[in-house]
Design brief:
The chain is an alpha+beta fold and 409 residues long. It is built from 11 helices and 14 strands. Helix 2 runs antiparallel to helix 4, helix 5 runs antiparallel to helix 6 and helix 8 packs antiparallel against helix 10. The chain binds zinc ion. The site of zinc ion (ZN) has 7 residues, from loops.
């Protein structure tokens, strides 16, 4: 799936109409969730039951009927996604929270499928054709949506962001561009002091905008605390805070994309640690959590480009990658503040470089069977989210919001 995104330009009444459609989507989701929660134990509520229930909602509420029928369905399906994820977690006996689906109160998007909209054949415009009276929207962006066959557009999403409304098209066009063998392999280690260190000893510094951003965000956040709750000033301060976040998440995404693309272009195998997002999200330190989100995005792009270029992207278990000597295999204990790895065998490296080499070696050991079928392997490294370069919504990630939620949404 490819996601093309445009900024929407429209009249005030049209924005209100989009808002109304987004609210309706939320209403359906919460109704479906309540329906599932209230159902007696012996009735089995599944995808189809929710779908059927959403049709009942259409008959009962006029404003639901006004939304395109497939958009109503889509909302019910998204509810089912949340429920089935909860079931899965219970079945797999995931430690800790199982993610019991929550009622939504800040839904930001409405999703259409293959009906309810029409693309202007010549201009970059789209008309939403259901009875929510959204009408024709102008699309601002560099892509040419008209060049894609209408049939390949599987979803259309209208999304609210801090700085306006956006229109996303999910296109079923896995653009594959197999590259000739590069003859290189690389391992990556994420550190705190640098963005990442590779097995060749190259250290990628944290981009400046992240350091600057951290200051700006903290400042904007303090401003919110100073204002009275619910006051106009408070609302303005929050809007400033949200826009700052948005800007950074875009920069961060671009940065991750470029770095990941270069890495996958010049290496046949890219190895990295399989860090658990679940654990990362528990981090409350601001600087660290900015790094976590960046790394998560970086990894998603690596996996995307590995798939696209026909490379191997391998995530290895992060065990003993740091203390183990990459030369002789001895365990050399070091504290977090020790920046070098010095082993009695004579091996002397930066600690992150040593770890990166270990990560690469682990990936080489683990993957012999999959050599020669890079595409499939890259796919499997993506775990449960095949074809998930749909980072459109991820780019609007706010700190503290669940990444998992956003990715599987
Ligand atoms: Zn050694």
């Amino acid at each position: 799936m490819l996601v093309l995104e445009y900024k929407v330009k429209a009249k005030r009444l049209q924005y209100l109409a989009i808002e109304e459609a987004i609210k309706t989507t939320q209403f359906i989701r919460n109704k479906c969730l309540k329906y599932w929660m209230d159902a007696p134990k012996e009735t089995k509520i599944d995808r189809f039951a929710l779908n059927k229930y959403s049709t009942e909602l259409r008959n009962e509420f006029k404003f639901v009927a006004n939304l395109n029928s497939m958009a109503v369905q889509s909302s019910a399906e998204r509810t089912w996604l949340a429920i089935s994820r909860f079931y899965d977690n219970c079945k797999k006996k995931v430690v800790g929270k199982k993610g019991f689906p929550k009622f939504q109160h800040d839904n930001r998007s409405v999703e259409y499928k293959t009906s309810g909209w029409k693309i202007n054949p010549t201009k970059r415009r789209i008309t939403i054709t259901d009875k929510k009276s959204i009408g024709e929207l102008k699309l601002l962006g560099k892509w040419d949506i008209q060049t894609y066959p209408v049939k390949s557009i599987k979803r259309l999403r209208l999304v609210r962001r801090a700085d306006g409304y956006y229109c996303q098209f999910c296109i079923d066009a896995e653009s594959i561009d197999i590259q000739p063998k590069a003859g290189n392999e690389i391992g990556l280690d994420v550190g705190i002091e640098s963005f990442c260190t590779d097995s060749n000893g190259h250290q990628e510094a944290n981009p400046k905008f992240l350091r600057k951003a951290e200051k700006a965000i903290k400042h904007a956040q303090r401003k919110i605390y100073k204002k009275r709750k619910g006051s106009v000033g408070g609302r303005k301060a929050r809007a400033i805070f949200a826009r700052k976040h948005l800007r950074i998440s875009r920069q961060r995404n671009e940065h991750a994309k470029i770095k990941a693309r270069n890495l996958c272009k010049s290496n046949d195998l890219v190895a990295y640690e399989n860090l658990q997002v679940r654990n990362l999200l528990k981090n409350h330190c601001l600087a660290k959590s900015i790094g976590d989100v960046s790394w998560y995005l970086f990894r998603k792009w690596i996996e995307y480009f590995a798939g696209k270029f026909g490379r191997l992207a391998v995530a290895v278990a992060p065990h003993y990658t740091s203390p183990k000597c990459s030369n002789c295999g001895a365990i050399v204990k070091k504290s977090l503040s020790t920046r070098t790895h010095a082993c009695s065998c004579g091996c002397n490296l930066h600690r992150d470089e040593n770890a990166a080499i270990n990560i690469l070696n682990l990936a080489r050991q683990r993957q012999p069977a999959q050599r020669g079928e890079p595409l499939q392997a890259a796919g499997s490294a993506r775990g449960g989210h095949p074809q998930s370069n749909a980072v459109g919504l991820v780019t609007s990630t706010l700190l503290g919001e669940s990444l998992l939620e956003q990715v599987t949404r």
